Amino acid sequence: MIRVMLAEDQGMVRGALATLLGLEDDLDVVAEAAGGAEAVLAAARERPDVALLDIEMPGKDGLTAAAEIRAAVPSCRVMILTTFGRPGYLRRAMEAGASAFLVKDSPAQELAAAIRRVVAGERVIDPNLAAAALSAGPNPLSPRERDVLTAGADGSTIADIAAGMHLSEGTVRNYLSSAINKVGARNRIEAVHTARAQGWL
Known about the structure:
Elements lengths: L1 E6 L3 H12 L4 E7 L2 H11 L3 E4 L8 H11 L4 E6 L4 H9 L4 E4 L4 H12 L4 E2 L1 H10 L6 H9 L6 H8 L3 H14 L5 H11 L3
InterPro entries: CheY-like_superfamily (IPR011006), Sig_transdc_resp-reg_C-effctor (IPR016032), Sig_transdc_resp-reg_receiver (IPR001789), Tscrpt_reg_LuxR_C (IPR000792), WalR-like (IPR039420)
Pfam family, one: Response_reg
Protein name: Response regulator
């Protein structure tokens, strides 16, 4: 049996996935989680063969959880299953050690087949998304620029961002200005919108 752990914040979707995968003779859902931190703990406890993670989850997102699960349970293959088929997300998922990246509108049979392929050592990526990621190019933002842009996404002032990140206000302005220029935006709000749309944040 292939032991699977599911992490999805929407209970109905998580339950449906667990039921569908449970219909397969060779798949056993051994744990479910509603958030990224819970997923990391469940993976460490159950040591599944595959961790199936959503990206958008409360607290710790699926991409962060993916890297932590790979570090805690190296034998566990990580698969990202998301509504958000963004090129930047795919790139970040691969950097986090994910073996698969699939969008949720794929048929259920394809998901089960993808799990088997991943356990066999293959990498499974939605072909349309792979093409989009190649044409989009790499994330232009440095990790620090991403952090500052994320911290300012809710409209926080320069002073608030600086205090929260233990940086000077001048340093925060420089990071924001650089990020705005790199994504080709006119202001911080537009930069956040563009970066999120690409999956860079």
